[in-house]
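Look over this entry.
=====
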Amino acid sequence: MGKKLLTLCALCVFAVSALFAGCGGQEQAKGSEDGEKVLRVGVNADFAPFEFQDENGSSEYQGFDMDLIRAVAKEMGYTADIQNINFDGLIPAMESGNIDIIASGMTINDTRKQQVDFSDPYYTSGLTIVVPVDNQDIKGFADLKGKRIAVQIGTTSMAEAQKIEGAEVKALNSSADTFMELKAGNVDAVINDLPVNDYFIKKTGATDVKRLEERLTSEEYGFAMKKGNTELVQKVNDALKTLKENGEYDKIYEKWFGTKPGK
């Protein structure tokens, strides 16, 4: 979901039986009781098509990020144990040792780099606007001055919306909530990541809203790991490289976005 600006916590928790601890602060994913190596993955499963649960309430998390992190874990020789956490709680959960990696459409930016170490980028996104289909006043970001804008709390969408002069920004818990506010007429526009806006319109068949062409930013998503955990970062990057070379990454990408990624 491009994403959150969280307070840097100086926590260093090493529980020998619960975490993989190595020399110099290196960590690895933990092992299960039967000896299986487990990668504990934190997600905020409300960011379709990257991570979500289907309408039937299945406990199986779906989406591009979910398929990719499972493939990464498998390539590393691990099993992914996915935990659903509020987006603004993901980094604290990792800092406290409850998860090993964040796979949740997290935008790589300088603020977050002070808190976490990122993998190589695996997806390029950007912020776009959705407005009612009959709205003729808003044609781009310059027209949002003084408007009511819905965003997901803690995201880069919220950070950018707060820079708009005179805008009334409504920060909500999920991207789904932002679209509900728009369809109810409570806001003039929604700012969200490009694939999220497109997926919502495609999935719901909505004809009463439209996504504007202008893209405010170009954002790269990466998997986040605890600061200083260079060993795990290298393993994840090696796995990503292998998946791109053997074609598995392209298959996952095409499954969720309908086209192969640009080379």
